[in-house]
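Need tokens for this chain, all 293 residues.
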Amino acid sequence: MLDDSFRRRYGVLPIATYTSSLPAQDQPRPFILMHYHKEFEVLMIVSGCCELDINRQPYRASAGDILLIPPYALHAGNILPGKKFSHLCFCFDLSLLPHAELRQMLESGCWDTIKQIRPGDAVYPLLYKPIHEIYSQSAEGKTGWDFVAQGLIYYVFGVLTQHEGIFSGQPRSKNVDLCVRVLQYLEQHYAEPLTSAGIATFFSYTQSYFCRLFQQNFGMPFQKYLCRFRIGKVKLLLSDSNLSIADAAAQVGFENSSYFTRVFREAAGCTPYTFRQQQLLLHADSNRLPQTT
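Here are the structure tokens for all 293 residues:
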């Protein structure tokens, strides 16, 4: 899924913040569905443990770890059983950086970044406080936050470029290219009736081979992922449109309202109505941020 929802949350700067706090799980639970986006993402684990898949490489992360996710990198995440899990992250458009060559190399995929920075790494002490402050300033939106956040982003990228091995040239694997092509197809056709057989035919695979590849690369069967994909799309409609819940569900491909309500509750932990009310409260709270004239 190409996630462009960040742009709906931009304010003075093209930067958006996210956080989560979830109770301890007794089995692995997805908290990030496989997707990609144009923004550079910085994620910090506050408590608990998770496993992130970034461009088909697994990273086990625990409290204090910093994860760097470059533009258009496929990524997904599962909370691991044990302690309560929480994380914070911010995503920003690389137009914030004055270094045009670095921006172009990262967005084109010619350069990659190291994905995980742990508390014991030499560069970590230089990054922890600035990254936490970028998140806090952007989330709180106090007067002048944009100056502070952009200055700290400059600082963080300055530190990263000064440490050898943070940025490197590394082409994407064939599996990543396949995932991107499948996601691009879903982005164009998710509202239509879709089957694994039909998509397998489109990509010139047998159904059994496509299903096996999909399970290996996305960590779940095709129909389950498609359902989660549509849930992600309907969340955007429930947050940012006046469509009725039934119309929003139908617009993303859910034909049965009872089935939609059940799978939405399973994925989001609440009913579509409750989710919409929560989003209304969030939007009302965001109105306190400084407005440009």
